[in-house]
Amino acid sequence: MAKAKKAKPGIVDKIGKWHSRVFEYVSKKAKTSRLWAIILTALVIYELIEHLVYPWLVPLLAIKAFGE
Asked: N or C: which end of the chain has fewer CB within 10 A?
């Protein structure tokens, strides 16, 4: 039986890996530096807003802008 061809990673996978590397790096730095801890906190707050608020806000603004 032939091996299945591995699919090229999509944009979502690439973004996920990039996010993971960034958060891993900042997390390591935050253990020893107050500045990096503040940066990590800001990144986490941004990610929460991006994933919890924007999905609700964008359709609301679209309805407001273009009417229903």
From this structure: N
Q: Is residue 44 part of a domain?
A: yes
Residue 58 lies in a domain: yes
**2: in domain:** no
Whole-prediction pTM: 0.69
CA distance 32 to 26: 10
- Only one residue has tokens 């960034």, namely 22
The tokens describing 41, both together, are: 């906190």
Residue 35: predicted pLDDT? 96
Kindly tell me if the per-residue pLDDT of 32 is higher than 90.
yes
**16 vs 11: CA distance, rounded Å:** 8
